Amino acid sequence: MLKIALAATALMGAALALPADGEAASFDCTRTDLKADEKVICDNRDLNDLDVKMVTTFDLIAGLLPMGNRGELQDQQSAWLKTRQACNADKACITKAYGDRLTQLMSVYDRIERPR
Questions:
Q1: Tens-place pLDDT, residues 66-81
Q2: Nearest C-alpha neighbor of 37 from the set 83, 104, 75, 73
Q3: Phi, psi of 109 (to 5 degrees)
Q4: What is the Cα–Cα distance from 38 to 40, expressed in whole angstroms?
Q5: Cβ pair 111, 76 in contact under 8 A
Q6: What is the secondary structure of 55-96 as a DSSP string?
Q7: Measured distance CA(61)–CA(108) in Å, rounded
Q8: Tens digits of residue pLDDT in 26-35
Q9: Distance separating alpha carbons of residues 20 and 25, to the nearest angstrom
Q10: How far apart are CA 2 and CA 51, in angstroms?
Q11: Residue 22 — left, alpha, or beta (φ > 0 → left; ψ -120 to 50 → alpha)?
Q12: Which residues make beta-bridge pairs with 28?
């Protein structure tokens, strides 16, 4: 039941966090110094949507974690970003990177202790 609530909350958050023209969820697509992976994300609505979903899910989970655990989550996010950047302009690689990260984030969510 809680997983359904998280999914609904993430979807509502994603709808509210939809980027304005020229933006992905986690960076500004109008910058002139975009990396290859960022250009592909900006140019592809499906990847842009995955970026919104990933950022929304990350932010939601970060808010649920105790302060001491947020640093580890941020470190994992930084490592993942390097993985995504290593994809360069390979759309399939970037898509897989987002899928892998969303799976990791849901695994973190599943391990969060909550009242029963």
A1: 888 899 999 999 999 9
A2: 83
A3: -60, -45
A4: 5
A5: no
A6: HHHHHHHHHHS-HHHHHHHHHHHHHHHHHHHHTTT-HHHHHH
A7: 8
A8: 899 999 999 9
A9: 9
A10: 23
A11: left
A12: 23
Query: Which region among 15-19, 87-91, 107-111 has the lowest average model confidence (pLDDT)?
Result: 15-19
For residue 24, what pLDDT is reported?
67
Confidence of residue 115 (pLDDT cuts 50, 70, 90): confident
Contacts with 25 (C-beta within 8 Å, 6 or more apart), sequence order: 17, 19, 48, 51, 52, 54, 55, 56
Helix 67-86 × helix 91-111 angle, to 10°? 160
Sign of the CA dihedral with 67 first, then 72, 108, and 51 last: positive
- Rounded Cα distance between 51 and 25, Å, is 6
* 26-45: average pLDDT: 94
pTM above 0.90, yes or no: no
Distance CA 12, CA 6 (A): 10
Q: Is 88 left (phi over 0), alpha (psi -120 to 50) or beta?
A: left
